[in-house]
Each structure stands twice: as structure tokens, then as C-alpha cells.
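Supplementary Note 3. Input sequence used for the single-chain structure prediction.
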Amino acid sequence: MNTFSESKLNEVANQSLYTTFTNSNTILYSFKIFSRFLKQGKILELGPAEGLMTEHLLQYDPSLTVIEGSSVFANQLKEKFPNLTIIQSLFEETVLDEKFDFIVLGHVLEHVADPVVLLKIIKQWLTPNGKVLCAVPNAQSIHRQAAVEMGLLKTIFSQSEKDIHHGHMRIYCPNTFKADFINAGYKIDHFGGYWLKPLSDKQLEESWTQEMLSTFLKLGETYPDIAAEIYIIASV
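The predicted structure, written as C-alpha cells, is reproduced below.
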């Protein structure tokens, strides 16, 4: 199965945009969503990057385990979180004997070659009552629809420069997102969205305040189908 090499992941890591104003706020808001479903227990996080969500997940599992494909990010995580259990490996090549109560995939499925295969793999790592918490960008976001109207994107599923930079392999919509979980044999317990995003990150970062961004992140929960981010809480 074709997937990213470690060198490609390191290339993305060395030019990371995950900690910019809009991206960091989006990651932290996704944790806010996930925290509604989290409890104390064993947690596995896939693709933590710089560890913006990792820091908060440690509240629920001080012995948190993460799988990170990039050695650049893995080394940064070791320095930042000395007690973290870090597995530096591609997801599809990882072998685990442990079972976890929660598996967190914050912006992971858009990066992998075959999301259904990965979802089936991690299903083996869940406890009987375990849950998968997953968030991805949404093709139906109003900022992508506006980009199509303006001729900046051919379709809502076309990749922007930022998508290419991050190595995205697909842009999900609510239906395709749900379909991958169903095809992998999951039950979808909750579906929702957040981040009502009217403009590009670059445009927003030129003029928006924290209060404005926080407000529109919350507003997206009311309009999940056109929110910039969508999420699924799933079980088996």
C-alpha cells in the first residue's frame, strides 16, 4: 500500500504550519470537542505533530502513548514531554499488543493512503467499550465553496496550496467521512462540526482577533455540514 515515507513526513514537519494562529486554535477547539467524550483511561494519539493536543490529553492519561511517523516531530515531543510513550513509526507498520479506551485521530485520515485500512487496524487496538475520536477538514466549508465561486478552486474537493503543503491525500465531506467509518465496521455515535470559516487562513490572520476566531469556531457547531472541520466519535 502506498503511503508517505518518513522523509516526506519530515519535510512537512520542517515546514510545519500547525502552530499558526488559526491552525493552533482549530486543534485546541477539536480537543474541546473531544473532551466532552473523554474520561480517565488509556489513550493512544496518532499523528500528534508538535503536541498541541497531546499536552491536554495527558490530563486524562499521564502515560499517554503516541504514534508519530516523523522523526523530527518525535524528537520534539521527547524533549517537550519526557514521560510520553512515543512510538516513531508509520501508522500502518505499527504493531501494538496494548488495548486503549480512546484512540484520537486529529487531522490524520486526510493524510493516509487508505483510511479504511487504517481504521480497521486501529480497531484491533480498542478495548471492548473503546471509542475513536476523529476530526478532519470539510470540503463543504463555506470558505471552500466561496473559493470555487471565485475561481480559486476547481471544485470543493480540489487541493489548495495549503492542502498540498500538508500532504493531504483527500478532502472529506460529511458523507465520505461517515462512509469510511461504516465501511471499516464502526458504529458512529456522534457526528458534528465546528469552525464556521468564511475566508482563508491568510486572510483571517491579517485582521481577526482571538475573540472573533473563538466565536466562529463555536458557531460552526450549529452548522456542521458547512463547517470547516467535522468530527466523528465512533465505537465497535
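The mean pLDDT is 92. Strands lie at 43-46, 65-68, 85-88, 100-106, 126-137, 187-194, 229-235.
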